[in-house]
Amino acid sequence: MSAAIILGDRSHIAQGLQSCLQADGWSVKGWHRGGTLWGAGPWDLCLIALGAIEPRGAWSGLLRRDVAQCWHANLELPLQILTRVWGKKNPNASVCWLAGPNPNRADAGFSAY
Question: Which member of 5, 53, 57, 93 has the greatest number of CB atoms within 10 A?
Answer without folding.
Answer: 5
